[in-house]
Design goal:
alpha/beta, about 180 residues, 6 helices, DHBP synthase
């Protein structure tokens, strides 16, 4: 657990980390720290307009970031979690523009990956989750690949393995159910 406590401390201080997820290594930071988010966007060479996914260990960590949706739709989402499903919700006014990008929605996932669960529990909240790679390069699936892309730019790389899932999480609209990826 000490690595998770250290990682949570780094996140709270505005740092950027890499960590294993279901399919790839991800970048993480405090989603409410604009400077930390901008560092990730700079590392990836990614436009803020695209928005970012937030990852959590449970619904309570993210529910205030969404507007209410019909209960039957919410039940479908909650029954898919924890798992490799990212859902797009209408965003609440608590979501900063550097997370939502040009959209009035937010992408959220409650992960079943043990590293993500432990990390978000230690941090006591959601974190940014975007693949640890420069835009248009293959996502990193190991610590070595993360270090090859970013030899000195990160505050911490959490050890661990990505799951056997080879594909990024499925992205669906929480209201319409439409598959977006």
């Amino acid at each position: 657990m000490n690595n998770y406590i250290e990682a949570a401390k780094i996140l709270k201080q505005g740092g950027v980390i890499a960590y294993p997820t279901e399919a790839v290594f991800g970048f993480g930071c405090d989603p409410f720290n604009e400077k930390a988010v901008n560092k990730i966007l700079s590392l990836k060479k990614r436009s803020v307009d695209k928005g970012l996914i937030l990852i959590a260990s449970n619904w309570n960590q993210i529910k205030d970031l969404t507007k209410l949706i019909p209960q039957d739709k919410l039940n479908i989402v909650l029954n898919s979690w924890p798992g490799p499903y990212t859902w797009i919700f209408p965003s609440s006014d608590k979501v900063p523009h550097w997370i939502s990008g040009k959209f009035d929605s937010i992408a959220l996932r409650v992960s079943a990956h043990p590293t993500v669960q432990n990390l978000c529990n230690a941090y006591n909240g959601p974190i940014v989750s975007t693949s640890a790679n420069p835009e248009n390069k293959p996502p990193a699936r190991s610590i070595e690949e993360v270090k090859n892309y970013f030899p000195n730019e990160l505050d911490l790389i959490l050890g661990g393995e990505v799951d056997t899932t080879k594909q990024p999480s499925m992205i669906k609209d929480a209201v319409s159910g439409e598959v977006l990826r």
